[in-house]
UniProtKB/TrEMBL annotation:
InterPro entries: Polyketide_cyclase/dehydratase, START-like_dom_sf. It comes from Leifsonia tongyongensis. Pfam families: Polyketide_cyc2. Gene3D superfamilies: 3.30.530.20. This is SRPBCC family protein.
Length: 149
């Protein structure tokens, strides 16, 4: 099964700062606390990241192996992560555009499930959307509350 969801938020910071924070996978712990869904991003192959960088996301008792698919500074980041058995794959696309007073961040997530996870697809989507909303809220709070280190 396949589902796509988009979240849009405006952040009162320039695109370069928003992009830098999203692209700093090893730095996620300084602004994105673990939750019941997301634990950590680890084993990042490149710092700073580039197109082709690999990483692992630890989420709800499983590991998703990821790759940076697109990397256009200050404009576009695309991440793809999946279980090794192929039963869950997630593609996350961040599009950044300058707007008056800051940056519009459009986060589009595509979730594909198969096998036993297809049976609980609506739960996977609901849980993922809730986590995506939390992440976007923290991104905005962090960037608007201080400067990027």
């Amino acid at each position: 099964m396949r589902s796509t969801r988009t979240i849009t938020t405006d952040v009162a910071r320039p695109p370069a700062e928003v992009f830098a924070l999203l692209a700093d996978l090893p730095g996620f712990p300084r602004w994105l606390d673990p939750s019941s869904t997301y634990r950590a991003t680890v084993q990042v192959s490149d710092d700073p990241i580039v197109k082709g960088t690999t990483y692992t996301d630890e989420v709800q008792g499983m590991r998703l192996h990821g790759t940076v698919r697109e990397y256009e500074p200050d404009h576009l980041l695309v991440f793809h992560q999946a279980r090794t058995d192929g039963k869950l794959a997630i593609t996350i696309r961040y599009e950044l555009a300058p707007v008056a007073g800051g940056t519009r961040v459009v986060r589009t997530g595509e979730i594909v499930t198969s096998g036993f996870l297809a049976a609980v697809h609506p739960i996977v989507v609901r849980t993922t959307v809730r986590e995506n909303e939390r992440m976007m809220k923290r991104l905005k709070e962090y960037l608007e509350g201080g400067t990027v280190a």
